[in-house]
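User: Terpene synthase. Structure?
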Amino acid sequence: MAQQRLLDEELTAGLELPPIFCPLEAATNPACLRVERRAIAWIDEVGLCADARERAKVIATRSADFYSRFAPHADEDRLLPAVLWVYWGFAFDDARCDAGHYSARPAEFVPMASRVQRALERPHPAAGDDRYAAAVHDIGMRFRQIGTPVQFQRFVAAHRGWLAGVAWQVANQARRRMPDLEDYLTMRLHSAGGEPTFAMLEIANGPEVPAAEMESLAVRALTEMAIAVASLDNDRHSLARELGEAHADQNVYGVLLHRNGGSLAAAVRTATSLRDRVLLRFMRLRERVAPRLSTAGRVYVDGLAYGIRGNAEWGLRVPRYLGDRTAADHEITWAEHPMEDTAEPIPIPSIAWWWDV
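Assistant: Predicted structure:
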């Protein structure tokens, strides 16, 4: 595709991605390394990976570090199942969503994903489960044991939303269809995996958020904005890797190039401005809403903020995105100011309501 060739040419020419603006607090759970060891033992125990190469790739996601940044104050035994799901999610995403047999075959992806979803939902294992279904069933049972029924069902619903979003992505891939910006942002609210990732905050931290708070427009907006910011950051993080694997067109940069034309540098500026405006709205709304929430509600909203920052910082360090450029604990340069500082709503109907609450 023309967008793909342009992306390849500009990346080869040394396009510099701007530093990330993220003035949110960073923290990491002190149990991170212990949880990582326990998670790797689980990966081997359940047979998640087909071979040593896949095992190394999954472990290199540093999923324990990733989620330890989302829930820095969680108890170790509550943090573990969330970390297991992140390792599982990256393995499943790489093998069956972004690439592999199912990634452009929606008629096959949907029944496969439905079987995986059902494995999470049901309380008993099944002899016919493949390795992904069996592993997610095990994780689901762990969530049942430590979470409340409401928390578990919230996660199940979020997981279903994620797989539905991926099905949309797979359908686009099969048709070689580039979504417009509104469709893309809507799809990414689901397909990026942010829904289940943030839904695990309650289970990891413990307190159940009252329904009146969790389902309020303000908390729903904060949740969606956290997912949107993290998704756009992931597009930034994964650009080089996806170019190397020849499936970088269905990201925010490809969408903007398809709609607006121009250069990749211009698309990067537009995407960065959009992302920064959403983050600024998140910060302002959080500041206004948090004092009115229960303790459980504040813990959840704080987790959204930790997650935005943690996802950004993890993505700037993890071998999954840096590859051979990875340097141990290298210094990160953060942007001091947003690309665009305005309180005006983004004029995209499906997200403009975030500025109304």
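The mean pLDDT is 93. The chain has 17 helices and no strands.
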